[in-house]
Amino acid sequence: MASAITIPSFLVVFRSISYSYQQLPKNWVCSHFKMYTPTKLMFIKTSNGYQGQVEIKWDADQLFFSTGWGQVVRDLNIQPLDILRFTLIHDNMFDLTVFDNDLIEKAKSENKHPMFIRWFIDIYEKELVLPMKWCEVRYVDDDPNHAVYIKTKSGYRKVVEIVDDGAGITFTKGWSKLVKRLDLHPFTILLFNSVDDQNFEMVVYLPGLGSGKRVSCFNFNSKKYKWRLKKEKSKMKPNLCVSYGFKRFRKENRLTPGRKYLFNYCYEERSFYLFGDVNSRHLRHLF
């Protein structure tokens, strides 16, 4: 079974450029970030050499980046719905990686391929499609059809074939065995780093979901809804579904029955965020 990541990192979805602060996930703070002073300076660096400075403040039991965060947002051109990965590399420094709406790393250092994120949704899928825009950059001069190693932080290593079938570039042979071996759950977030032509590093962010779990869901206006999950009773394809709270959410947000909608799940906050209709212009390219 896949174990939780050992490096002290977390993912958040950037909500609005009008915010002058950034909240840190409460569960992550309790587990990794033991601070007892009300304010403290923190450095934020990126892989391309940028370094900024923010002030950390406590508000009740919440921890925030406050003064200086707005400048970091402007300097790095962070946009709404960008995904931010913070990694604590020192007691006063975070390494920040920004992923755009295509789920690809925005700024990267020289001689390094950008990292990318994939949402793992269906445990029965035998392939994983790689981001189109990432493939256009990565394989501009190279043949994508070859075998690679995918390695996790726990030391697990698996050979997986990459195939370009004309419609897209995917992890194919070996991928389903990797999924089974790591016991990946629906809604797991997978972060990939192409170390070189033959090796990928994969970081697994576990969802922490199960039958009977209570979770939160936020719409575009950040209104909070309460959901309860249950395991779908199907021998062919067991999955989780919402047993309580979705009917109200669907009506108030005018979701059309029969259409597919994309939600981002933040495992630290145990919360879903509505992204939109998968057929909309800004999401269609992800599928």
Description:
This protein is mainly beta. The protein has three domains: 9-99, At1g16640 B3 domain (Beta Barrel), CATH 2.40.330.10; 116-205, At1g16640 B3 domain; 214-286, DNA-binding pseudobarrel domain (At1g16640 B3 domain). It is built from five helices and 19 strands. The chain has helices at residues 26-32, 69-75, 132-138, 175-182, 246-252, and strands at residues 9-13, 22-24, 39-45, 51-59, 62-65, 83-90, 93-99, 116-120, 128-129, 146-152, 157-164, 169-171, 188-196, 199-205, 214-218, 224-231, 240-244, 261-266, 271-277. The protein has a seven-stranded mixed β-sheet. Strands 8-13-14-10-11-12-9 form a seven-stranded mixed β-sheet, covered by helices on one side. Strands 17-16-15-19-18 form a five-stranded mixed β-sheet, with helices on one face. A hairpin with a 5-residue loop joins strand 3 (39-45) and strand 4. The longest helix is centred in the middle third of the chain and has 8 residues, at 175-182. The protein is globular, with a radius of gyration of 19 Å. It starts with 8 loop residues before the first strand and ends in a 10-residue tail after the last strand. Mean pLDDT is 80; it is low at 1-6.
In short, what is this structure?
Helix content is 13%, strand content 40%.
